[in-house]
Description:
By secondary structure, the chain is of the alpha/beta class. The protein has a domain at 44-130: Barstar-like (Barnase, Chain D), CATH 3.30.370. The protein has helices at residues 5-10, 28-34, 50-61, 71-81, 93-99, 101-117, and strands at residues 17-19, 38-43, 86-91, 121-126.
Amino acid sequence: xxxxxxxxxxxxxxxxxxxxxxxxxxxxxxxxxxxxxxxxxxxxxxxxxxxxxxxxxxxxxxxxxxxxxxxxxxxxxxxxxxxxxxxxxxxxxxxxxxxxxxxxxxxxxxxxxxxxxxxxxxxxxxxxxxxxxxxxxx
Length: 138
C-alpha cells in the first residue's frame, strides 16, 4: 500500500518516516499547517559538520540555547514535539550522509524510533536519497 500525504494529514495513514515522491514544488508545510498540524523543516544540504547539523536543527526549530546538541537531546525534542500532530520536512539527508554517514544513520535511527513511539509524528524525506556508505532502510 502506498500512503499519500493527504491520507497522512487526514489521519488515515499511520505516522512514520516517508520518502517524498511527489511534486517538488508542493508546499507540504502549508498543507500541514492548514489542517492543524505543526510543521517543521530541516535542511541539511549546506551542513559541513555534525555541529552544523545541530545548529541547523536548533535554529530552524527555534530550540532553546540549552538544547543538548546530541542524539539524546534530539530524541527528547522529538518526543516533546509529538504531543500534537507534527510533520517534519527534511531536505538533505544525502548530503548529511556524505558529511558523516555514521551520524546520518544514527539520526535516521532516532527519527525512526521517535515516529514508532509517537503516533502523531511523521518525517518526510525530500530530495535525492542515493547516498554513499549509508546503511539505512527507509
